[in-house]
Design a protein that fits this description.
heterodimer; A: mainly alpha; 12 helices; 74% helix; B: alpha/beta; Rossmann fold; Alpha-Beta Plaits; 2 domains; four-stranded antiparallel sheet; elongated; disordered C terminus; binds adenosine-5'-triphosphate; binds magnesium ion
Chain lengths: 264, 329
């Protein structure tokens, strides 16, 4: 089967786009870096975390997760654009594997995440982020982030192939991801929220991812999570479960959607 | 052998309100060219999409080279080429990048993809523009690159959806040349168009479709005969409209078409210049001096007028709708 090589051709196309229009990379990097700097210097001073090394240690995993969660938006907008231009229909008329185009796209967006995370990590280092867990755990943390981004990307495929306009894709993904990242422990402790919200926030996959990354990057501090709640006790396990569920649901749905997609 | 068959294709949209295909039947003999002629919204693109495996019809059967397009789409994709109504190539990438990508997706080796790209760029006069992003291409260049991409692996059956819409006369001529070359190479071609002249130039046979059905089928000559060949067109002053209508009605046996605004009266005629001379004589006898008088070759509107007994009015509405949709983008 050509399933893998076909997908890689699509991925290569996306990387070639980045090479032809380098601004695309530049702007995917600038926004997360801006976030790092803003949060670090605007809120960092006023939030007392009791964390050795300061707020930036807690902040970086939060921003990492938020950024990879937004992979979904890039995937969706890219696919909507391809569909509007008739490219999806074109690809569908070719004798390629039924999943190649969507797999290629999610892999390409994953590859872009490597660049983005690297840039953010370096910026974080400059402003005082010092993960203390050793090379292996830190690498594992980044792998974790990449897989989460990949999983979220599949939600983006379904959205991207379901809407008809790029602007709708942009707005729909923003509405889907923005509350998810703020209704979490990424930037502030969950214990300060009203009870029902706190409950949602702690079970939110973004929170379990953030807590998991904090663990992998060597932090003890749970940043005000309710002591003893299941997700805050087992963030890594919960995150893995979430990623598996997301992929198990959205990969088949997305592939199915792709094979019926017609532009117009 | 039949290269393409379609039997009783039905496809509706908006819960049955829009009948895009309403029992469409088609077949194309191997190695020949079928021109599918119809106005906006007739169902041309829908037909192409079904045959090119992009759309599953609500009911009906279709085959390409004997392979069922609904049951076995992947096999069909191996032997067809498709160039859709709007050029579908990656705008960010260069012409070269696009051809290599599509070559690789057709499972050519890197080397074979390269040499095929070089050949195609040459064939379509795009060698000079090869390293430029498609964004910078003109409409005609885009169209040619799009066509080139559908020919990477020499297809047995080729679908071209309105290949010259939006091109200037020169671009259209060029495209006709390219298509004629392809046809000489033996490919079976199904081409859709809104222009009778284009079907005339390129097709062995023409199927006229309207409202999702084939309403006439035949060679260009036989269709023109049905239309009544040429049309007599006369423009007169307002006060002579009524008299002129009577004269034209006497000469033509088909329905008149009267445009009060333009003060134009027209009708199909079968006797060519004889009809023209007769009309001129009769007008002269009545003391009417037409502002304009002449014979026109049949247009798509005439085909419709004659075949359906009504002008394709929806066509004009849809043109407007389409134009505003495009502006909205
Ligand atoms: N996705 C869709 N949703 C709703 N209606 C559709 C859809 N696709 C096509 N139609 C309708 O089906 C009919 C046939 O459309 P089709 O695109 O096949 O026409 P066409 O002959 O290609 O027209 P044109 O010359 O404008 O390209 C039209 O009335 C069109 O509005
Ligand atoms: Mg069309």
């Amino acid at each position: 089967m050509h399933a893998i090589s076909d997908a890689l051709i699509i991925t290569k196309r996306q990387l070639l786009q980045l090479a032809r229009v380098p601004e695309l990379i530049l702007f995917s990097i600038i926004q997360p870096i801006m976030f790092v700097l803003l949060f670090r210097y605007v809120f960092g001073g006023s939030i007392d975390t009791g964390q050795p090394g300061g707020y930036v240690q807690l902040l970086m995993p939060g921003i990492f997760v938020q950024t990879v969660a937004f992979t979904l938006a890039g995937t969706a907008v890219g696919l909507t654009a391809d569909m509007q231009k008739g490219l999806i229909a074109r690809f569908r008329s070719l004798p390629i594997s039924r999943s190649a185009v969507v797999f290629g796209r999610t892999l390409g967006d994953g590859a872009l995440n490597i660049v983005v995370l690297t840039a953010m990590g370096l910026t974080g280092y400059v402003v005082g982020w010092r993960p203390s867990s050793g090379f292996l755990n830190i690498t594992l943390g980044f792998v974790f982030l990449l897989v989460f981004g990949f999983a979220m990307s599949w939600i983006g495929v379904l959205i991207g192939l379901s809407v008809r306009e790029e602007r709708v894709a942009t707005n729909a993904t923003f509405i889907a991801v923005f509350p998810l990242t703020f209704l979490s422990n990424a930037f502030a402790p969950t214990t300060g929220m009203p009870k029902p919200l706190q409950y949602i926030a702690e079970w939110n996959p973004v929170s379990t991812m953030v807590a998991g990354c904090r663990q992998l990057f060597g932090l003890e501090n749970q940043f005000g999570a309710t002591a003893g709640s299941f997700p805050s006790e087992n963030p890594l396990t919960m995150s893995i479960v979430y990623m598996i569920i997301i992929m198990a649901v959205f990969i088949p749905l997305s592939v199915r959607k792709y094979n019926r997609a017609v532009n117009k | 052998m039949k290269a393409i068959t379609a039997e009783e294709l039905y496809k509706t949209y908006d819960k049955g309100k829009i009948k895009a295909l309403d029992g469409l039947n088609l077949d194309v003999e191997e190695g020949t060219v079928l021109g599918v002629l119809g106005p906006n919204g007739a169902g041309k693109t829908t037909t192409v999409r079904v045959l090119a495996t992009l759309l599953v019809p609500d009911s009906g059967r279709a085959t390409v080279s004997g392979i069922d397009v609904i049951k076995n789409p992947q096999e069909v994709r191996k032997i067809i080429g498709l160039s859709g109504q709007y050029a579908a190539v990656d705008e960010t990438l260069t012409g070269w990048d696009n051809l290599i990508m599509f070559g690789r997706l057709y499972h050519l080796s890197a080397k074979a993809a390269k040499s095929r790209a070089i050949e195609l760029l040459e064939q379509f006069s795009l060698t000079d523009a090869a390293k430029r992003p498609i964004r910078t291409y003109s409409g005609g260049m885009r169209r040619r690159l799009d066509l080139a991409a559908s020919l990477i692996v020499k297809p047995k059956v080729l679908f071209l959806d309105e290949p010259t819409t939006g091109l200037d006369p020169r671009g259209r001529q060029d495209m006709w040349g390219v298509i004629n070359e392809l046809v000489k190479g033996g490919v079976t071609l199904l081409l859709t168009t809104q222009y009778l002249e284009e079907a005339d130039q390129l097709a062995d046979e023409i199927a006229v479709i309207d409202h999702g059905k084939v309403i006439a089928r035949g060679t260009s000559d036989s269709l023109k005969k049905q239309v009544g060949g040429e049309r007599l067109e006369i423009v007169v002053e307002n006060q002579h409209m009524a008299a002129t209508k009577e004269i034209v009605a006497r000469i033509s046996s088909s329905a008149l078409n009267v445009d009060e605004g333009l003060r134009l009266i027209s009708a199909p005629v079968t006797t060519g210049s004889k009809a023209l001379i007769e009309a001129a004589k009769l007008l002269d006898k009545m003391g009417i001096h037409p502002l304009d008088i002449g014979l026109k070759r049949p247009s798509l509107d005439d085909v419709f007028l004659s075949l359906t007994g009504h002008l394709a009015e929806e066509k004009k509405d849809e043109d407007l709708a389409l134009a505003s949709k495009k502006r909205g983008r």
